[in-house]
TrEMBL record, chains A, B:
Source organism (scientific name): Paenibacillus artemisiicola
Family assignment from sequence similarity: Belongs to the purine/pyrimidine phosphoribosyltransferase family. Xpt subfamily.
Binding-site positions, 5-phospho-alpha-D-ribose 1-diphosphate: A128, N129, G130, E131, A132
Gene this protein is translated from: xpt
Record localization: Cytoplasm
Protein name as annotated: Xanthine phosphoribosyltransferase
Length: 189, 189
C-alpha cells in the first residue's frame, strides 16, 4: 500500500530495540482516511474468503478492523486485554505475551460471538513475534471456527511472526513489510 | 438516531445497578455500518464547529470516533488508559474515576498532538457520571485547546453526567438519551 509506505517513511520513528513508533497515524493519533483505505485493501484481499467475523485486540487494532468490517459487511469483535482474570465460563481466554511490553496479558472474547460456523479474519496493527495473532487464532479455534486469514497493517519481516503463522497454515496479508530498521532507517521488503 | 434506538431496544440488556450492556454492537462486538452512520451524524452536528481534532478514550470510543474523524477529515486521538504511571513530561495526564468498574485510571495524551490552536471534539460511547468526558475536557484545556463539543453515543439521562457538562458550558450531543432502565426496560427521553 503506497500511502501506508509513505506515512511510515515520513512519520515513523525508529526507536532502540527494533521498535517502530507510528503514533502519529496508527497507535495514538489515528489517520481515519488511511484506516479507511486499509479497510478497503483488506476488503479486496479477503473478498472471496467467506469471512463472517473480523477479530482484533484492543486498542490499536480497532480502527483498521472496524474499517475492514465496514467493507466486508460482517461484524467486528475486539478481544479484551486484561492483566489477570478469574476464569469465566462465558469467555474464551488465551494468554498472550508481549515482547515489547515484556508482560503477559489475558485476552478474552465472549463465547456468544464465535461459533463453529464462523470464518474469522484476524486484523492487527503490527506483526512481530506473532504472539497476538496466534492468540487470536487459538481463540477462533477454541470456538471451533476457522481462520480465514490474518491481515496485518505493519509487519516486521525481520522478526519470526510471519514464519510462525505460515507454518501453521494461515494466510497472512501484510500491507507494509519492513525488512530492516537498522541505523534508524526503515527499509521495506 | 432511529437505527441506534432500534439496536438498543432489540439488543441492549439491562443489568443490575443501571447498567446497559450493548456488547453486541458497541462494546465488544461492533456493528461497523452503525458506527459509520454514527460518524455521519456527529459529522453533520459538528460540521460548523471548526473541529481540528477528535478525542476519545480507548477502547469502546475508538470505533465511533474514527468514523467521526473520517467524516470531519481531522485526526483522531485515543487517550490511553493506565492503572498507574510514572509522571512523564511529554504526556498530558488526568485521573478518571469509573463508577462502573469502581476504579480510578490515569488517562494520557501525548503533548505533541494537542496545541492551543486546536478545537477538540470529544467522542465517547457512554455518558453516565461524566467522569470520562470531563477528564478528556481537562486534557484539552491543559493543552490550551478549546472544546468544540462532546458527542455521546448513549447517554444515561437519569445520571448526572449531562448536567455536569452543560454546567461547564460544553455543548453536548447525545445520539440516544435514556430516561430510565427501570424494570429492565429501556425508555428513551
Amino acid at each position: 500500500m503506497e500511502l501506508l509506505h509513505q506515512k511510515i517513511k515520513q512519520e515513523g520513528v525508529v526507536l532502540e530495540g527494533g521498535v517502530l513508533k507510528v503514533d502519529t497515524f496508527l497507535n495514538h493519533q489515528v489517520d481515519a482516511r488511511l484506516m479507511f483505505e486499509i479497510g478497503q485493501t483488506f476488503g479486496e484481499l479477503f473478498a472471496e474468503s467467506g469471512v463472517t467475523k473480523i477479530m482484533t485486540i484492543e486498542s490499536s487494532g480497532i480502527a483498521p478492523a472496524v474499517m475492514t468490517s465496514l467493507q466486508l459487511q460482517v461484524p467486528m469483535i475486539f478481544a479484551r486485554k486484561r492483566k489477570s482474570l478469574t476464569l469465566r465460563e462465558d469467555l474464551y481466554t488465551e494468554r498472550i505475551y508481549s515482547y515489547t511490553k515484556q508482560e503477559e496479558s489475558e485476552v478474552t472474547v465472549s463465547r456468544k460471538f464465535l461459533t463453529p460456523a464462523d470464518r474469522v479474519l484476524i486484523i492487527d496493527d503490527f506483526l512481530a513475534n506473532g504472539e497476538a495473532a496466534l492468540g487470536m487464532a487459538r481463540i477462533a479455534l477454541q470456538a471451533g471456527a476457522e481462520v480465514a486469514g490474518i491481515g496485518i497493517v505493519i509487519e516486521k519481516s525481520f522478526q519470526p511472526g510471519r514464519g510462525k503463522l505460515l507454518e501453521q497454515g494461515f494466510r497472512v496479508e501484510s500491507l507494509a513489510r519492513i525488512a530492516s530498521l537498522e541505523d534508524g532507517e526503515v527499509t521495506f521488503v
